[in-house]
Specification:
- The chain is α/β, with parallel strands linked by helices.
- It has a domain at 3-150 and 184-224 and 296-308: Flavodoxin domain (Rossmann fold).
- Helix content is 47%, strand content 13%.
- It contains ten helices and six strands.
- It has helices at 14-28, 51-56, 58-63, 96-101, 126-138, 158-168, 185-204, 226-247, 251-286, 288-299; strands at 3-8, 32-37, 82-90, 93-94, 114-121, 142-150.
- Strands 1, 2, 3, 4, 5 and 6 form a six-stranded mixed beta sheet that branches.
- Bound molecules: flavin mononucleotide (FMN).
- Flavin mononucleotide binds at residues 10-16, 54, 57, 88-92, 120-125, 162, 166.
Length: 310
């Protein structure tokens, strides 16, 4: 029996469902689980309703300046064997309340402990996961596994379906063409399988030295998103600085910056998509070793199982 601390933040319930799967499977295998939802001091709206409000969190998310969260209730001095952190992605970064957790005294629980991360996103988790790894390293954690789940449907279709649901709260398939927002049943089943494997391997171990999920289908890196995510991250970073600088002049300049970013994002998608379609085959030929190295880095520490290579 191992003692497990399970921390998550969730708005729509996707990250919550992922956390529940881990809680159930760990408990079923006889482990003791302390589960806690992280809560921002000032809640974010869900559904967001306002486009301005939605995009307004981008600069602080991107620049790593989270507002405070409520003090978590778990005892950071308790002897946990493993921490599981379930992390939604916001603007190619960990969601603000997750970043806020790293600023609390309770984040000391991570020091020297094995940590498994479960990243939940629409499709673009790669850069957020790298930021998460940096936060974990700075907190002194031992990152042993990274599990990734994304919303159903192609990453292009979810550019419409996910924001629609996040902004309006409406579910269902838009125009009968776009996928329903959220994680597919088969991905939840994959998560349950992974949780079961991890729970069983925990029972077989005295100490946790490395990955519990190596060789299992925990993470698949979409090669064609590597370039767009990197470019997007740098663009977001530039806009984040710009909006923050505008904000120092007042609310109206910040609002103008936020709207400018929203328009830029739509334009970037419209221009970027065709360029990605043209550029990807070229990148595959010209930069294959770089893509392979990058995919290996992004999928670490668990690494891709060959059966799910994208
Ligand atoms: C403010 C905000 C920004 C987001 N940015 C991204 C993003 O950059 N990449 C992505 O793949 N998904 C992004 N998403 C989608 C979420 O990661 C996705 O909806 C996830 O399921 C959220 O989990 P939760 O609703 O349980 O918190 C964003 C969602 C929000 C609310």
């Amino acid at each position: 029996m191992k003692r497990i601390l399970l921390l998550f933040y969730s708005q729509s319930g996707e990250a919550d469902r992922a956390a529940t799967i881990f809680r159930e499977e760990m408990a079923a295998a006889g482990h003791s689980v302390t589960a806690e939802a992280l809560r921002p001091a000032a809640d974010y709206p869900y559904p967001w309703r306002s486009i301005r409000r939605f995009f307004d969190v981008m600069p602080e998310t991107q620049l790593g300046e989270p507002p405070p969260i409520r003090p978590p209730a778990f005892d950071p001095a308790a002897a946990y064997d493993l921490v599981i952190l379930v992390v939604p992605v916001w603007f190619l970064s960990p969601a603000l309340p997750i970043q806020g957790f790293f600023r609390t005294p309770q984040a000391a629980v991570l020091r020297g402990r094995p940590v498994m991360t479960v990243t939940v996103s629409r499709a673009m988790w790669q850069q957020g996961s790298e930021t998460l790894k940096r936060l974990l390293a700075a907190a002194g954690a031992r990152h042993i596994d990274n599990v990734v789940i994304t919303h159903r449907g192609s990453p292009v279709a979810t550019l419409v379906s996910t924001p629609r649901t996040l902004l309006s709260g409406r579910g269902g398939r838009l125009a009968g063409v776009f996928p329903e927002a959220g994680v597919a049943e088969e991905d939840r089943n994959r998560l349950r399988y992974l949780a079961k494997v991890a729970a069983e391997r925990l029972n077989a171990l005295d100490t946790i030295d490395g990955s519990l999920l190596a060789g299992e289908p925990a993470v698949a890196v979409r090669r064609w998103l590597i370039g767009p995510e990197l470019l997007g991250w740098y663009a977001f970073h530039g806009w984040a600085h710009l909006i923050r600088a505008a904000g120092r002049l007042g609310d109206a300049p910040r609002a103008a910056g936020v709207w400018g970013f929203a328009v830029f994002l739509v334009a970037m998608i419209l221009v970027g998509l065709p360029l990605t379609l043209i550029g990807t085959p070229i990148l595959y030929v010209a930069a294959r070793p770089w893509l392979a190295r990058r995919a290996a880095r992004l999928s670490a520490p668990t690494g891709e199982a060959s059966a799910i290579r994208a």
